[in-house]
Amino acid sequence: MSTPAAKVKNAEAQGGGPSFPVPGAVSKLADYPRRIRHFLHEVRVELRQVTWPTRNDVYATTTVVIVTVFFLGVYLFLVDLGVSHVVERVFKTFKF
Question: Is the Cα torsion angle 37, 41, 42, 43 positive or negative in sign?
Fold first, then answer.
């Protein structure tokens, strides 16, 4: 069975950190630059794996989106016009 002093000595020998206890907030603050560096490295690695679309692909998909939005807008306008006409008829029939 090892004593607490032996555990601390073993931790220091293995690079286990400081020999005194560090409060949680302080250790997180000290670890922050390393975490940011690691995050930016991971972002760089992921961005290298991205297959970026060509100019023609972007043009084609943008055209499809604009045409779809236009037709959906016209469709919803016509549906709204029909529903409002039906509601007006109901109000006239029951004289609300």
Answer: positive
CB 69 within 8 A of CB 77: no
pLDDT digits (tens, 9 = 90+) for 18-33: 566 666 777 777 788 8
Q: Kindly state the tokens that stand for 27.
A: 């250790």
Planar angle of CA 60, 63, 67, nearest 5 degrees: 145
* Helices assigned H by DSSP within the chain: 4-13, 24-49, 55-94
Q: What are phi and psi of 49, to 5 degrees?
A: -90, -10
Q: Are 17 and 11 in contact (CB under 8 A)?
A: yes
How confident is the model over 39-73, as pLDDT tens digits? 999 999 999 999 999 999 999 999 999 999 999 99
Report d(CA 90, CA 87) in Å as an integer. 5
pTM: 0.51
User: Phi and psi of 2, rounded to 5°?
Assistant: -95, 150
